[in-house]
Design brief:
Elements lengths: L5 E5 L3 H13 L3 E5 L2 H10 L4 E5 L7 H11 L4 E6 L4 H9 L4 E4 L4 H30 L10 H14 L5 E4 L6 H11 L7 E5 L5 H9 L16 H4 L4 E5 L6 H13 L1 E2 L8 E2 L3 E6 L3 H6 L5 H7 L2 E4 L9 H12 L10 E2 L1 H9 L5 H15 L4 E2 L6 H9 L18 H19 L4 H7 L4 H18 L1
Parallel strand pairs: 1-2, 1-3, 3-4, 4-5, 6-11, 6-12, 7-8, 8-11, 13-14
Antiparallel strand pairs: 9-10
The structure holds adenosine-5'-triphosphate (ATP) and magnesium ion (MG).
The site of adenosine-5'-triphosphate (ATP) has 18 residues, from α7, α13 and α15.
Amino acid sequence: MPASLKVLVVDDDRLNRLCLTSMLKEAGHQADACDSAMAALEAMDRAPFDLLFTDVRMPGMDGLQLLAETKARHPSVDVVLITAYGSVEAAVEAMRAGAADYLTKPFELPELAFRLSRLIELRAARSEVNNLRALLGHHCHCGIVGNSTAIQRVYQRIHAFADNDAPVLITGETGTGKELVARALHVHSHRGKQPFVAVGCGTIPRELAESELFGHERGAFTGATQRRKGSFERADGGTLLLDDIDDLPLDLQVKLLRVLQDGTLSRVGGDEEVKVNVRVVATSKIDLEQAVAAGRFRDDVFYRLRGLEISLPPLRERGDDILIIAQHFLRSLPSPRQTRPCSISAPAARALKAYPWRGNVRELKRALETSLVLCRSEEILLEHLPDYVVRQGVSALPQSPFCINLEGREEVKLKELVSQFEDEIIEWALKKADGQQARAAELLGLPRTTLQSRLLPRRQGAASST
Ligand SMILES: Nc1ncnc2c1ncn2[C@@H]1O[C@H](COP(=O)(O)OP(=O)(O)OP(=O)(O)O)[C@@H](O)[C@H]1O
Ligand SMILES: [Mg+2]
């Protein structure tokens, strides 16, 4: 939130206008002035403002009507009404009608400065609340961010399955969040305070896998100098995540079946039957049914696991979640600089949405790490995305940039349309230039600084609209 505000002053009295704008400028703010409510509405349609100071009594549309109209058209603009000395009723009415504050004429610079500082605080607090609301809305499932219908189905399943002790199979491409979901299942279950143990079935050396999972007795093999508990026993009372279960050797699948069926196991080198109370959650990146058909996975284990299945959709099928998750990473990843970007430009957002994300959320996270290194401004632009995202993401966009469709529109705002058209052309040039601004400027026959200045108002527009 900038400490300097963009203020519009409305008063039919020229001297009052001059006086207030100069006071505002003296207090360090930008000020423009209009002599009527209609002119003010037009000015606000043309450019963004933070604050509107309006006299109440004006010929034509008065200050209260202007307040109502401004609230309806530009809800982020705070309105301060200026009332004549002593008209307390008007002040009360103003606050009821939604004014952020009121000033009684005549007033001096210190009073104005004090009111302005309160308004700055109010705006900062409001934006903080909005950010927190957005954050809470997207963060209700143990760090799993997203609102798409596809991910909502996943949330429903997590809640439905959490307290059931039967095994769960989580499937999905790499980086779709299978481990996050496994942890969410654990946290939401009655086992949440008990251990959560994760074992990567593909990462343990074959000869150690049995002992790692089921433990061993002293002397079971060379080097087994004492009894050791395996992952199942360490997870007793809690949840065991068997990551990439398709990598589990067939002979260990037999032992796994026994634990799944009656909750017992025997350690390597021992006959003792050990009872465990463990909820098994398994993940797989591949289609286990095919692995069963190919004889690489036991059908009895598969059918036991598949009872409760959560299938994670690829990121490219989650629509706007791509941007919601990207925003989450912008806020949460460590930033190399003190100020971090808080928004994503429209062309960059389009490229992010068009890129296929075969590495899913993990790949998106890496891309945003790169952006945080490259970006020195408040907004992530196309040029701050990794080159491969720009190349592939933008090439997946429609080829012709010059095709604004007006069909079915009742009315159009010329300024908006021209700016959209310009956006498309600039985006087309940046795409052709692989995201390099200097080259894009050349393609457009513009000096680089001119291209940058065309990009700047979009950045400022996005920042002031947050
Ligand atoms: N919906 C999401 N919201 C926020 N972060 C997510 C989301 N999904 C995944 N992540 C993050 O993406 C990264 C990869 O997630 P995770 O390790 O759970 O994926 P995975 O499906 O287990 O991948 P792999 O199959 O490669 O093991 C992690 O840093 C995780 O925190
Ligand atoms: Mg994983």
